[in-house]
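Structure (tokenized):
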């Protein structure tokens, strides 16, 4: 039977290794858009970057509501869904800093600056989401 994760457990789960998140944003017509993202937790905030002209970038600028699902697709199956509202920044210093930190998580410390330089540029958005709601379950199939 599924068990609810504690705050400490869900934070460790979403921060483990290179798990990607499946980000859901709201399109102009109200329908959902889902895309995989690289991300980090920073205290109570979810942090990621995206292109200003991508579907998710345009959606976030217009309507900041998001849901993010992170899961383990191996038995006994665990998942976390985070919900909140995005705040957008185009500050290049901040964007480059976070792009490098995210790059370090997913590509390794040795490539962090490369990803900071690649993704910390004009046309990119730094997205910070204060998590308002968490649904976190472990051992769903146990």
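Design, position by position:
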């Amino acid at each position: 039977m599924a068990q609810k994760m504690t705050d400490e457990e869900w934070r460790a789960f979403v921060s483990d290794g290179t798990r990607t998140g499946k980000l859901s944003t709201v399109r102009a017509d109200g329908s959902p858009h889902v895309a995989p993202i690289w991300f980090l937790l920073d205290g109570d905030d979810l942090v990621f970057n995206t292109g200003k002209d991508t579907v998710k970038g345009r959606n976030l600028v217009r309507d900041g509501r998001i849901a993010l699902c992170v899961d383990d697709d191996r038995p006994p199956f665990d998942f976390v869904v985070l919900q909140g509202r995005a705040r957008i920044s185009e500050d290049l210093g901040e964007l480059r800093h976070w792009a490098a930190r995210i790059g370090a998580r997913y590509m390794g410390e040795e490539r962090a600056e490369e990803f900071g330089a690649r993704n910390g540029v004009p046309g990119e958005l730094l997205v910070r989401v204060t998590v308002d709601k968490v649904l976190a379950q472990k051992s769903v199939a146990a």
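Reviewer-requested clarification: The CA atoms of residues 25 and 33 lie 5 Å apart. The chain has one domain: 3-138.
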